[in-house]
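As noted in the main text, all predictions were made from sequence alone. Below is one such record, for uS12 prolyl 3-hydroxylase.
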Amino acid sequence: MSAKTPSEETKAQTKASSGDMATDKRRVQQDDDASGEQCEAGSSSAAREDDTSKPPASKRTKRCDDRNTELVSINGCFFDDEFRERFKAAWQRRETSAGCNYELKQTPFQLAVLQNFLQEDAKRADATKRLEAEFSTVDWKRKQMDLYEFYQTDDLCSLERDYLQAFYTVLKEQMMPLVEELTGIKLTHVSASCSMYNAGDYLLVHDDLLSDRRIAYVFYLSPWDCHRRWQAKDGGALELFRADGNQLPVFPVTDKIYPQNNQLVLFRVCEQSFHQVGEVTTFEYPRLTINGWFHGPAAPLPAGGKGAHAGPQAPSIIIDTHYMSPRKIDAELGEWINDVYLVDEVKQNVQKKVEMFSEVSLEQFLLGPRFTALLESLRTGANLEWRIKGPAHLRKYEVLNFKALPEANPLRALYDLFTSRTMFRLLYDYTELDLYGRKAKTPKCAIELQRWERGCYTVLGDSSTYADSTLDITFYLNAQENVGVITYLVPEGEGKEQERQGSANQSDAPQASSSSTTSPYTECYEDDPVLLTLLPKDNVLNVVYRAEGTTKFTKYVSHNTHLEKADGDGHAYTYILVCSYKE
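Prediction:
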């Protein structure tokens, strides 16, 4: 497709809505350099090829002087001896530093912000405007997965545009030797592409750690006179996260760097370089960048450390799901559940549907008064104890502390119901899984009551999450459109195209985290990879048998999502009871 950006005189409409984007069930092929602003990009969730450019034949150690620099050239202040010495010393000592046109940060990881990056003198007065104009002439591909939504071009080396080619040459011949000198990190070649984020677009948390990526960079274009510097209300910030002792990103966001015209951001790719692109919330202007990596020989591993190809973290660290045996509670199902779902004939029909389709949805599952009491408890429960659930590169939502609930609270009774041996028996009747009876060996379940609002998500994480077959139970309360939409995808290896892509990308597929493994699916399919999409609806028990290897994620909730119930009674949250049962 072709996408246009605002000109100096007129602003093109850049409103991006879910209706005119690719459908949730469609995936497009993704290159490694197409993983988004992958200096802001990369993915825990998608296998991609590292489609980088070849190393240049030679590297110049001083500023080049050819026809490309007649179009664009780096600001001469960054070649000044005083700047170079100050920057090098601060980088090596891991000290903060700031001066004319630059700032060097050390937390949460090493990152530099260079202002007025390109020289815009009398000879090159409108370099950024010329670059932005060429953005309107290139072909854009929509990138849409669990981790991100945005537009991107092919690699810059293949784009026959004067200013973009000149910028690419300057990156190779001017900037790469300079970055190598400033950081002391050996560099061999550069990869680059253009990215465009319209309203509603985003890129979730990842660390860029893969193979030979050494320094990530983002060059910002916002040359419109009234919008050269972005504000918080516009969104689109590069958001930085702190890593905990397990090298996992934690909330909240530590720092934010907003787009500014002619600004270049550089950061060292490492185990702690967790970042995201905050959702663009302005409908007036797109977020335009040229982004990629400077590549070089892989860094030596620290003693006992992990590298870009290291194995996954211990699942107990990342996947802190607590499973329990059925509790010896004989819940009175008739006091909770619609009588029709307790009739033997209906149970048999449910079982047949699960056997045939691996899923069934039971509407009006709970008795009306019970469901109403649960909603009232959630809406008025000011003393309910919620905590945010991470790590940030896998998920963001809140969970209820069931243990802190008083015995008389209806939510405590809901917890007792779904963890009781009586419920295990009912689910046995619905599915014939060995959750109850003589053949049942070690049945167990995990349960969460989740609270969702704008900005919440889950992504496709560590493959060990999907190592076992599981019976998923999903139940919505205060359901709202587009909040908590769950997508199930085909298991790894199913389908010719997926199998081909998997084998092609297995060795170099990018990871959002050094603690995660290659995603169990790629972005290019001949057949639709989506098995099932659960749409939020009140008082519906969604029963899904998830076979080994089948993956799922819950779609990011855009800040542009209209929360109808927030307008009505002022309650913006959607609640999701999520239970997993295993034989």
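The two ends are 48 Å apart (CA to CA). The chain has two domains: 31-297, 320-488+534-547+557-582. These features were considered when defining construct boundaries for the mutagenesis experiments described in Section 2.9.
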